[in-house]
């Protein structure tokens, strides 16, 4: 009788255990089911910055025993999802912050629940670009900054002005882009084309009309001593122009020329910008690409604005020369110096000493030839000098 009772008790216990095992979700171990107190691990890998279009979010869910039910919500609304990859079309929701919530429960008796949240910053609207003054008027021989304004921060801009394309990668909401018309550029309308991308990658485009108007330039008759006539050789002039064109063609960032320039020396203008010259009674030459300031030899010459020295060396026609890169295609040049007081690669601030006035190169007397170049185009530097400089 005892044997029969023991056998019956054994089979009853085994049957209950077997039945208990089969009704537990997932068939987890008895220990996990009864004593598990640890909730699942939930991790969301979502973009941290603004996003647009379709976005993939990776969701990781794990548990030391077994995960049971997993639910996904976007702004408290249930979202059908085939984890671990969650595909969200942000074009179907409004721009702004959206809260993504993932809840997971295990299959234990306690039904432990875990939750993780992430914020999606959606932006499917292109930025709005504007120009306070459109169209823009520029005279021959003039350079001026064109202000481009955006209604939101931008991650990238691209400017096309003539044959020059300038990419700018920076976090900004506006930029003053310099445009120039050379003294021989034909009057008419040119276009400044602007493309911009916001932080989510939305693209906007803008075309600015730049109207080039005629300028007025004088004629100068310059006597040249016999010892300098060799410098009038067109080949010598062309070779030096090509050399400097390579210097002026580099576009660097950031711009250091915000605000007005300082005049490098104070003195009368002995030869105006854009003037046509007859050297030693010869035919008229190309326009004068700078402004000559007549001051005594040895007068200190200062930097017009913040920048970096990219050239400090003697040239045949221009004599001892200094060229400063002010960023975003803007350069100033200082020629015919008696002494150079800076070196290539040196950072300078507005007002720093760069050299001394002289008469080296093709010069009939002491003066400073001062130039402004914008993407290689010469313009009158005096137009950029502030009223107190």
Give the SSE order as H and E letters: HHEEEEEEEEEEEEEEEHEEEEEEEEEEE
Number of domains: 3
Question: What low-confidence regions span 5 or more consecutive residues with pLDDT below 50?
Answer: 7-23
Shape label: elongated
DSSP helical segment count: 3
What is the terminal separation in angstroms? 119 Å
| CATH C-level name of the largest domain | Mainly Beta
Share of helical residues: 10-25%
* Beta-strand percentage range: over 45%
Rg, nearest Å: 37 Å
The count of strands amounts to 26
Task: Characterize the largest beta sheet: strand count, sense, and whether it forms a barrel.
Answer: 10 strands, antiparallel
Supply the CATH superfamily name of the largest domain.
Answer: Glucose Permease (Domain IIA)
Describe it for me?
By secondary structure, the protein is mostly beta strands. The protein has 3 domains: 17-122, Sandwich (Immunoglobulin-like), CATH 2.60.40.10; 129-213, Immunoglobulin-like (Sandwich), CATH 2.60.40.10; 219-384, Glucose Permease (Domain IIA) (Distorted Sandwich), CATH 2.70.70. It is 11% helix and 47% strand. The protein has helices at residues 2-23, 30-35, 234-248, and strands at residues 41-45, 50-51, 54-62, 67-74, 77-78, 85-89, 96-106, 113-122, 129-130, 136-139, 142-161, 164-181, 188-198, 203-213, 219-222, 269-271, 276-279, 291-293, 300-302, 307-315, 319-327, 330-340, 347-348, 353-357, 368-374, 377-379. The strands form 5 sheets. Strands 16, 18, 19, 20, 21, 22, 23, 24, 25 and 26 form a 10-stranded antiparallel β-sheet that branches. Strands 9, 10, 11, 12, 13 and 14 form a 6-stranded mixed β-sheet that branches. The protein is elongated, with a radius of gyration of 37 Å. The N and C termini lie far apart (119 Å).
């Amino acid at each position: 009788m005892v044997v029969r009772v023991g056998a019956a008790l054994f089979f009853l216990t085994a049957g209950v255990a077997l039945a208990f095992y089969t009704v537990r979700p997932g068939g987890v171990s008895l220990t996990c089911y009864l004593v598990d107190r640890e909730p699942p691990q939930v991790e969301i890998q979502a973009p941290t910055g603004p996003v647009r279009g379709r976005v993939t979010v990776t969701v990781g869910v794990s548990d030391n025993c077994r995960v049971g039910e997993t639910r996904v919500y976007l702004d408290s609304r249930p979202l059908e999802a085939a984890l671990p990859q969650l595909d969200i079309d942000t074009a179907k929701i409004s721009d702004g912050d959206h809260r993504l919530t993932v809840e997971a429960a295990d299959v234990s008796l306690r039904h432990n629940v875990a939750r993780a949240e992430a914020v999606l910053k959606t932006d499917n609207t292109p930025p709005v670009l504007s120009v306070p003054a459109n169209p823009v008027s520029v005279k021959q021989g003039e350079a001026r900054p064109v202000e481009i304004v955006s209604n939101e921060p931008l991650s990238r801009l691209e400017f096309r002005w003539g044959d020059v394309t300038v990419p700018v990668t920076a976090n900004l909401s506006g930029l003053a882009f310099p445009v120039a018309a050379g003294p021989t550029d034909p009057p008419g309308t040119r276009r400044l084309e602007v493309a911009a991308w916001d932080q989510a990658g939305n693209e906007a485009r803008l075309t600015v009309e730049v109207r080039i108007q005629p300028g007025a330039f004088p004629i100068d008759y310059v006597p040249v001593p016999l010892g300098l006539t060799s410098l009038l050789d067109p080949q010598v002039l062309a070779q030096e122009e090509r050399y400097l064109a390579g210097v002026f063609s580099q576009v660097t960032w950031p711009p250091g020329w915000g605000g007005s320039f300082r005049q490098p020396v104070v003195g009368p203008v002995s030869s105006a910008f854009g003037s046509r010259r007859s050297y030693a009674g010869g035919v008229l030459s190309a326009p004068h690409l700078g402004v000559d300031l007549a001051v005594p030899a040895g007068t200190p010459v200062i930097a017009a604005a913040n920048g970096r020295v990219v050239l400090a060396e003697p040239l045949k026609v221009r004599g001892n020369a200094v060229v400063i890169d002010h960023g975003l295609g803007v350069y100033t040049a200082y020629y015919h110096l008696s002494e150079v007081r800076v070196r290539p690669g040196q950072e300078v601030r507005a007002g720093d000493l760069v050299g001394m006035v002289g008469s080296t190169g093709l010069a009939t007397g002491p003066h400073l030839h001062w130039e402004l170049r914008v993407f290689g185009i010469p313009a009158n530097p005096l137009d950029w000098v502030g009223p107190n400089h």
